[in-house]
TrEMBL record:
Gene3D superfamilies to which the protein is assigned, alphabetical: 3.90.1150.200
InterPro entries recorded: YdhG-like
All residue ranges annotated as the YdhG-like domain in the record: 23-118
Protein name as catalogued: YdhG-like domain-containing protein
Pfam families registered for this protein in UniProt: DUF1801, OmdA
Domain of life (superkingdom): Bacteria
Length: 205
């Protein structure tokens, strides 16, 4: 999420001034949201194009090399197609990074996700049904290989509770680009060897 001061309060100007690497995708996302959920109100907040009813439902961010669609109550939404690929360690906000635009994105699943978010916002007092047990996040092979070579990091990782282990697995496992994977692995091993949980990892750098 882009937390810089908004460059404009006008959605049209916001789209017009998006970085070239994400402008077209932001325009497409905006059109889909208007088509699928026309009652949502559009505004600018924290340099994001936001859509609200009672509260903010979702928001679009435009970065230099990709667009991002954020759901403010993402952790409460069903996501059987696993569209969420960013911020999964967060307690509430989850996002969909779109480095390749909408190519390959299951738009039918996205529409269902957006509709579920709108229903959740419309009925905030509705009791949430008991969540099914969260599926265990698979151990990334690259992380497992590095842990075998670093006894201090592996020892601390093994003593972490599953919740804290998951944070590291998600963070490494959701990286796509080789340079991002390498960077997160290095940071992970330094943090674990220093006895730091994921939220404290910056302290070890």
């Amino acid at each position: 999420m882009d937390c810089r001061r908004s460059r404009t309060t006008d959605p049209e100007k916001w789209i017009a001034t998006c970085p070239e690497g994400s402008k077209a995708v932001c325009e497409e996302l905006r059109e889909l949201i208007f088509r699928w959920e026309p009652d949502l109100k559009e505004s600018i907040n924290s340099n994001m194009l936001c859509y609200s009813l009672k509260k903010r439902v979702c928001g679009i961010s435009g970065f230099k090399d990709h667009a991002q669609l954020t759901f403010y109550r993402g952790s409460d939404l069903p996501d059987p197609m696993r569209l969420f690929n960013h911020g999964l360690e967060n307690a509430s906000i989850h996002s969909i990074d779109l480095p390749h635009g909408l190519e390959g994105l299951n738009q039918r699943a996205l529409r269902k996700l957006l509709h579920a978010a709108v229903l959740l916002d419309a009925e905030p007092s509705q009791r949430k049904p008991p969540a099914p047990p969260r599926e265990e996040w698979p151990m990334p092979e690259v992380l497992a290989a590095r842990l075998k070579k670093n006894k201090a990091a592996a020892a601390f990782y093994d003593q972490l509770k599953p919740t804290y282990q998951r944070e590291y697995k998600v963070w490494v496992g959701t990286a796509k680009q080789p340079e991002t994977i390498a960077k997160r692995l290095d940071e992970t091993l330094r943090a674990l060897a220093a006895g730091k949980k994921w939220a404290q990892r910056k302290e070890a750098c």
